[in-house]
Amino acid sequence: MGGKVMALIQCPNCGKEVSDKAEKCPNCETLLREPPKKVCKECGQELNEGVLICHKCGCPVSTETSERGSKKKGSKKLIIIAVLIIAALLIIIFGVNSYNKKVEENKKIEISENYGINIKTATTTMLKGASDAEKLGVLIHDVWSNTIFEKSDAETDMYTKTDGRFNNDFNDSLNKLFADSTYQTRLSAVKSNQTNVERIMKKLQDPPEEYQEAYNAIKDYYDAYLEIINLVINPSGNLQTFTSNFNDADSAVVKYYAAMKIYTE
């Protein structure tokens, strides 16, 4: 295979070997030859740098160098545009992340506010139901007791007496009470209240961290509430055990309602 072999010369300044075609030493950058002069391709006239038209024959001067400069400028513009696009994308991404973070924070605030409202609603709804149940429980006790001890009372005589005489069996008196339409309406209101409370309590599951203590407190309140509700819906045992259990449940409701005030006021 044929081909030209590159010749090496020594740099007059540093003595390093360089190509005989090099215009300057790559080691010390000493000029090894004068750069070729620009000449008109048409007439050979030597031209000064920057001339666009030959002053001798009028031939346009090659714009290869200018084109290279334009390409370099074009490349710089592309780089600048790319940087601006990247910067814009980063700004957009940052803005979207900030927006999503703000939305998430607002969502947490909304959840917390709604939870606080549900805590208050559950507390007051249970108080209303327990209060209504307490009145029914007292009426059950009085009908039960007045039948056994044959005590006349304007509110209970219609249940404890038949033809003006006390019933021999307190169960007869209680059955008359439970069959009474007014009592049934009041008892239905208590049961409806219980349904509403259960619905609200389901919403209170998985509380936000700041409401964990309130949730623990309202669970105790709910247990006491259920106890007094169940005693009215299904009274059982004898008069003494019913009275004792009812009084304990009533006291517990008052106690735990008072404990809930620090979370609802």
From TrEMBL:
Keywords recorded for this protein, A-Z: Membrane, Transmembrane, Transmembrane helix
UniProt-recorded name of the protein: DZANK-type domain-containing protein
Highest taxon in the source lineage:
Bacteria
What would be one Pfam family of this protein?
DZR
DZANK-type domain span: 11-58
Chain segments annotated as transmembrane? 78-99
